[in-house]
Amino acid sequence: MKKKKTNTNEVRRLTVSTKRFLLGQEGFDVDFKIKADGVKPEDFVAFANGRGGTILVGVQESKDTSGKQYGKVVGCPIDDKAKQSFISIASSCRPSIDISIKLENIKSNKPIFRIDIPEGREKPYCTSSGVYKIRADGQNIGIDPSLMKAIILEKESEEFLKRFKSAADELLMSIAEVHANLTEQINQVENVAQEAISAANDAEQAARDAEDIAKWAAFK
């Protein structure tokens, strides 16, 4: 299976977008995991089949005094073994999934992993065991036949639009080339016509001059 490139960056503190995720609860675009081994193939598949999303590892879902849910940073061990496990999970999916791994809050005693999963371009995705999931309202749900048809139809529609746009662009280029050629030919015809008119005027003037010379000669 082809292994896709995975970017890994380090950030001293939490990024603005991560802080924004922590202010709310798990949803369509974010999932909290306390430990690295809590990340499963279904998580990557679910986000890739949806609109993409982010997994924050080292974060626990908690509630404040008013009952509002938020993400609490508890930190997790940061090592190459964890990063390689994420990459291996993404590569095991069918098709393999692109992910971006970022280490945040690394200057504190509560570092976290941020894993960004973009919306997939080759939907639908499944795990190596053939499990299809999609992200919905803070959880991964199975894809039933009707939803599977909708995903496939959406993909086919996007591909049709791409082909249609490509064909339209080619047609517009052809029309532009024809227009340019016609414009050039019209300009050439206009130049020839102008030269013909100029030559006719010169001939007419030469005839008048010859007539004047003939009259002058006859007068003498």
SS summary, helix count: 4
Q: Can you tell me the CATH architecture of the largest domain?
A: 2-Layer Sandwich
Q: Unreliable segments (pLDDT under 50, ≥5 consecutive)?
A: none
Average pLDDT confidence is: 87
| Beta content | 15-25%
By CATH's scheme, which homologous superfamily of the largest domain applies?
Schlafen, AAA domain
Number of strands: 9
The description of the largest β-sheet is: 5 strands, mixed
Spatial strand sequence of the major β-sheet: 1-6-7-3-2
Q: What is the class of the largest domain in the CATH system?
A: Alpha Beta
Task: Provide the descriptors you would attach to this structure in a database record.
220 residues; alpha/beta; Methyltransferase, Cobalt-precorrin-4 Transmethylase, Domain 2; 2 domains; 5-stranded mixed sheet; two-stranded antiparallel ribbon; 4 helices; 19% strand
